[in-house]
What we know:
Layout: E1 10-14, H1 19-30, E2 34-39, H2 42-54, E3 59-63, H3 69-83, E4 88-91, H4 106-134, E5 137-142, H5 155-175, E6 180-187, H6 193-201, H7 205-211, H8 221-232, E7 243-246
Parallel strand pairs: 1-2, 1-4, 2-3, 4-5, 5-6, 6-7
Amino acid sequence: MVEKNLAGRHIFVTGGAQGIGEAIVRDCAVRGATVSFVDLNEQSGAECAKRLQDDGLLVSFAQCDITDARALERVMADMESKLGGFAGVVNNAGRNSSADAVEMTEDEWDDFFDLDLKASWLTCKFALPSMRTAGAGSIVNIASVHAHMSYPNYFPYAAAKSGLLGLTRNLALNEGPRGIRVNTVSPGYTMTPLLQAWFESVPGSKEKALEVHPLGKFGQPTDVAAAVSFLLSDDAGNISGADLRVDGALTARFAG
């Protein structure tokens, strides 16, 4: 039986409609939390919410473009009014970016960083007042192993995820005296529909990637979700400013 170690808490998740995000929403709710989540895709979000609600879980969905600060503030204020102050926040929304450093435009850079870095600060900005009032809270930012190593041309993604680590460390220092913990989770290869599609588009890529994984397997969205729920709970009460890599020891090895 799953421990109800998030019972009575309101957890807010971005990008919660599918993949890792959906797994996080479900795991938090199964552990007793009331979970509100947003996603850009209204249809996927509504379908996800219905699936979880049909399973008897306490979840609430709202469509939101989290790069729109005013829209995000309105949605979060509405969720807080309906469900109570934020006990936890998970900044999961984001996307990949592979580009040439010369060919990438400023607009493309700004659009990407608005989602993959700035939006995480905005979510914290709007959630922290209720956490400060409560004198408690936990924020988990979903980074990536790209913050520690990367592929050629993934410089925007690596930069944004590295920025999340810096944001996390500093917020942990700032908010720690107020009883608020801030951490990151850095997933490695995780079997989401996006990764599966990439494997299918590049023959042999799955086998090549699997060869360098010390555990001999890829992660599942549920693996990331379990790590997030742990950091949100009191079981991680003395963990803050940390980065938890859920990568099967991939970043522990030398290349070659």
